[in-house]
């Protein structure tokens, strides 16, 4: 109920990694005769002993996946199976780059998600998420970088988003998740005061998909009614909060016992989401759009980020994060996207509720007609 499919991740105009340009890299590999194809060039990097080579290969994979003409070559190769092992690599930056590349790949289509499951991406993905479940961790947010979270936490965010897409696309992924015993640890991450709204929203959206027609998840989620209900009481602070509150309502609506207990608050929450004036929010973005070109030019002049020879892994991550910081307009577009997503989910939930009630009413009418005919 209330499924929310993620939009495709757009290809950045800038090079956020500070590494070699993708096209230049592939051309160089081919010119040097090291690889027969661009895909093989990436495979060679993924199998390199150098962490920098692996990260560069993963960044290249994440980028070429945005072009449909490259997808066939990816599927025909073993690159996904090879890269999957890097989800549990000892290097945190490699795990981060792998989760991000796979997340980008998973938004392309249901068929791609099914292919990724066939390539056994789930085994290392669930192993990675189990590491988070088995440890006490909290995100660190850098106020100097628009409250961007640390690399380990962003890896978790990318991994959850990947799992969400896989579970929404194939029952095999959902069955694997049911057996993983990760659900309780996911509910813990709904505490946005600790984990931030990005993680809380991503986890909630993953749980929304997982809880749909899934009795195995209901038996666990029914024990967290208080936590889910508390999210329904969140104020209209901002659009991410509206989305989190709405998705929580969707999870409750998916679990029959919780839906019966909190039906009144559930409907009030959906009504509050739908009454927000999205036209006003869209108008704010539209009025700012003429500034995009000017800001992009300024960004291109400022962001000339080259890798430093002696920088640590954390310094390298911070450099890449600075290069990839969104502009004010991009932040506003994302903010409005959260609102529109929340309103779409709310409308879907109400539609499903009404459809269920109509089906039950029709069944009752059929039973009555059958009884009258028999008498």
From TrEMBL:
Signal sequence extent: none
Single biological process term from Gene Ontology: protein import into nucleus
Coiled coil: none
GO molecular function term, any single one: unfolded protein binding
Protein name: HEAT repeat-containing protein 3
InterPro entries noted in UniProt: ARM-like (IPR011989), ARM-type_fold (IPR016024), Armadillo (IPR000225), SYO1-like (IPR052616)
Similarity section: Belongs to the nuclear import and ribosome assembly adapter family.
């Amino acid at each position: 109920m209330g499924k929310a499919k993620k939009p495709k991740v757009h290809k950045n105009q800038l090079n956020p990694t500070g590494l070699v340009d993708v096209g230049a890299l592939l051309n160089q590999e081919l010119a040097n005769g090291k690889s027969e194809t661009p895909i093989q060039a990436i495979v060679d990097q993924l199998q390199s002993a150098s962490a920098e080579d692996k990260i560069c290969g993963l960044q290249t994979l994440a980028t070429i996946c945005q072009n449909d003409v490259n997808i066939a070559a990816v599927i025909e190769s073993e690159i996904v199976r090879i890269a999957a092992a890097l989800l549990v690599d000892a290097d945190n930056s490699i795990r981060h780059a792998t989760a991000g590349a796979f997340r980008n790949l998973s938004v392309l289509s249901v068929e791609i998600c099914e292919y990724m499951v066939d390539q056994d991406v789930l085994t290392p993905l669930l192993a990675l998420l189990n590491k988070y479940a088995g440890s006490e961790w909290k995100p660190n947010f850098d106020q100097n970088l628009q409250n961007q979270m640390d690399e380990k936490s962003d890896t978790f965010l990318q991994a959850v988003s990947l799992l969400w897409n896989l579970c929404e696309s194939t029952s095999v992924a959902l069955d694997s998740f049911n057996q993983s015993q990760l659900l309780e640890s996911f509910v813990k991450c709904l505490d946005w005061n600790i984990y931030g709204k990005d993680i809380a929203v991503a986890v909630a959206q993953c749980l929304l998909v997982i809880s749909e027609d899934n009795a195995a998840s209901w038996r666990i989620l029914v024990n967290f009614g208080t936590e889910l209900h508390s999210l329904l009481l969140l104020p209209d602070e901002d659009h991410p909060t509206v989305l989190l509150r709405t998705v929580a309502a969707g999870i409750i609506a998916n679990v029959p016992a919780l839906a019966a207990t909190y039906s009144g608050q559930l409907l009030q929450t959906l009504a509050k989401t739908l009454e927000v004036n999205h036209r006003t929010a869209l108008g704010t973005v539209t009025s700012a759009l003429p500034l995009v070109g000017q800001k992009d030019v300024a960004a291109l002049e400022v962001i000339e980020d080259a890798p430093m020879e002696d920088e640590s892994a954390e310094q390298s991550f911070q450099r890449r994060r600075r290069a990839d910081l969104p502009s004010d307009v991009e932040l506003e577009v994302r903010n409005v996207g959260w609102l529109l997503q929340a309103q779409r989910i709310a409308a879907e939930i109400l539609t499903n509720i009404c459809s269920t009630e109509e089906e039950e009413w029709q069944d009752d009418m059929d039973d009555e007609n059958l009884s009258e005919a028999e008498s």
